[in-house]
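A student in our group prepared the protein record below, which I am reviewing. This is what I was given:
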Amino acid sequence: MHKKISLASLIILIIASVDSIRNLPSTALFGSSLIFFFIFAACIFLVPTALVAAELSAIFPGKGGIYYWVNRAFGGKTAMLAIWLQWVNTVCWYPTILSFLAGSIAYLINPELASSPVYVLSVVLAIFWSMTFINMFGVNVSLKVNEIFGMIGTMFPMILLTVLGIVWVASGHPLQINFSVSEILPSWQNKDTWVSLVSVMASFLGMELAGVHVNDIEEPQRNFPKAVLIASSFILCSMLFGSLAIAVVMPEENINLIAGVLQVFSYFFKTFHMSWATPVLAFLIVLGSMGNMISWLISPAKGLLHAAEFGFLPPFFTKKNRYGVASNILLMQAAVVTLLCFALFLVPTINAFYWFLTALSTALYMKMYILMFLSALRLHYRFIDRPKSFKIPGKNMGMVLTVCLGLIGAILTIVVGYFIPNMIEVESSFHYAMMILMGNVVMISPVLLFYAYRKYRHNPRQKISAP
């Protein structure tokens, strides 16, 4: 008999899917106002995403995933758009996590290297192509190893960072931010303040992944909401207090988005006469992050393979090697990421490069979430008579409210993503907005080619017979 997922295992699964130490520096840039934005984002996005994904998984216990959900609601073309947004968002995400790894490795060699575009690009490409070729052999890391890597590379450093931040404040050290009500609550008229919503939302992406397991959970109607509440609370607290730990120690202008975590750890350890711990922690973070990257590298490629098998891509992309890996998609993915990484030389600073890709990938992902929320609403009313596994509390009103909150969160994030924070150096606000717009157009437009290809494949031009 198949063993059901316990409440404790589900909580760990959700935390491992969402929590990420690499996002802390980008949220720390916004000082004490990040307290408001973390709570706000949890209400309008984190919880709605998890609940909607859970109900979608319960409606279709046999199959799941964004392609299947959207396909059942709106058809194949819209489903192709959704799966493409999920894949291309991940492609934009890779350079940010890889840049974080490059910055962490720099602390083992020479911290100043983290500000060198040539160094960052070299390490990023070396790591990514190495992982691509490793995955060609079908390398799979067991669930237990993934949990250990998550503990080593994410949970332990985040808890340690929070503890050090508390000790710093309790010891009476000077603070770089203040916690007055006027500073915590953002100005509704100040668009620069609201840009922080992008980095906060980026910290919560991926919550929907846990929903696919809802039918394997013990008492899902009771345990899934409980797991979401507990996991969301941990994620919220770890991200909030971890970000604040950086913000209270490092002046805003000195925070490096790539190496900021180890930057502040190094500062803490130097102050507390523990400098020897910096390279140790850097090694643990690199080890954990690389383990996480290896295990997740192939996931978006599998999603694209699913679309290829439905005829949206040429048969070339459905090819699998002898290890059962979609090798051609992995190679194409690596080539796209390589080209994207060269954008590092198109922006004036590495911070600007990191922020641009974070904003672009978040905007792409939010468009996918819009399709997921709309699909959930449509399928909720279409499949009324279904087995009771998990349903969003509140019946129809509960579903409508949840979807509306999620849509508000996604649309608001897309809008504010076009504004550049005043601490990021770019040519101009208009130039940055055009970069985000063109980035969206370039990343989404290939879908039109897939539509045209599938139409041609199903309705090929008739050959003219010789008279």
